[in-house]
């Protein structure tokens, strides 16, 4: 952990990618200051991360989804998110280009990190999103996690092997932007 915000700027640039931009550097400094205020040891653990999600999703149970997102934010896999990991993930998810966002989303869905997204992994994530937002649907419903995942696979799984490579995921997402919405917000493709 850096004693000040300088190493985050050197390593990642500012969140807006405009290195040297005083406004972005100031915003990054204030984010770092707030992060250290909230997490004096400079690290956010998984339970703290889940607690943040619970504040934003009080009507559902974000525990499972927050744990899955935590896994992607914790790049060095040490069980905590340092400021550099936090700010880089925020930068990619909020300001990254389409390829960066798709790479990040692929890492989220590829739970076992084997380079493929299986139907089961996607069911797991989409189900966790439903739990997080408090959406209750039966498995028979066309809006169920299973139905949505099956529709996504019909569109993306080019070779029919029931697992998506990053290329299939990327091409399918770029071909039909509704898929990205479905992956992110549970919209029907």
Automatic annotation (TrEMBL):
UniProt GO molecular function: calcium ion binding; calcium sensitive guanylate cyclase activator activity
Keywords annotated in UniProt: Calcium, Lipoprotein, Metal-binding, Myristate, Repeat
Superkingdom of the source species: Eukaryota
Pfam families named among the record's database cross-references: EF-hand_1, EF-hand_7
Signal peptide: none
PROSITE patterns reported in the protein's UniProt record: EF_HAND_1, EF_HAND_2
Domain EF-hand: 61-96, 97-132, 144-179
Family label: Belongs to the recoverin family.
Name of the protein in question: Frequenin-1
